[in-house]
Amino acid sequence: MAPNRPSPWFGAFLFFLTLIAAVQALTPAPFETHRCPVCRHSFEPLLAGSGTQTGMRLDFRPLGPIATPWPIPDCPKCHNVWFPSETTPLVSRELQTVAKTVRSTSYVRLASAPSYHRLAVTSEALKKPARELAMLWLAAGWQWEGTTNRLQERACRNQCTAWLDRHLDSKSVRNGAPDFEAVLLRADLFRRAGDFDNATAWLNRWAPQPAFHSGLAPRIIARQRLLIAARILNPEPLEDPSMRRPGTPLKARPLKLAPPAGH
Question: Which tens digit of pLDDT belongs to each residue from 78-90?
């Protein structure tokens, strides 16, 4: 990707969170047996096969008959969750870390929590990169939105914010090209928290940069400014009809986690 140019459709970020095939309706995936890497229990999870994205929220959550976040295997015995096609399997010490976390009292209490909430917990134990953790907590918050537990949804959003700030403050990000998706997501998190002054200051800091003058960035920034001026806290759509591109499928693939350090 050329420097100072946003990726088309903010593709990397959307691929990270959705992993969707664009077809006309949400359909289930064929049953496939999975074996939990922790307790070795075999089961057949109900996963989604495909869906249609008809729009996008300002926190990059796809809208339409689509599974967001993408369903992942959830062991009914020990409640461990994982990405089934991860290309770099956990090494012994990492598996021990996950097993210890899954068997902890605090994790057992999360048995009924959404899958990405638990995945974020085990990923923190594995010391995954800050950006990856931020996106997992964001996805966990999306799952909590479907319940009446707004405290948990807000807590996940706060965790997302903390890890995103750590990522944005890292030396590699500060000294490199802007992380477009992370910057624009941070603006939305400011607004959702009711921190309208910082949301405005954040947009004023980044909007003049040439990197934010193309693609969807100007539309996202303009939409955020309108919502900030109206003091709106809710999750809001971009309302951009160009987000749907009929006949242009996105290949459904599982999330590919970064290899552990030292591998």
Answer: 999 988 766 566 7
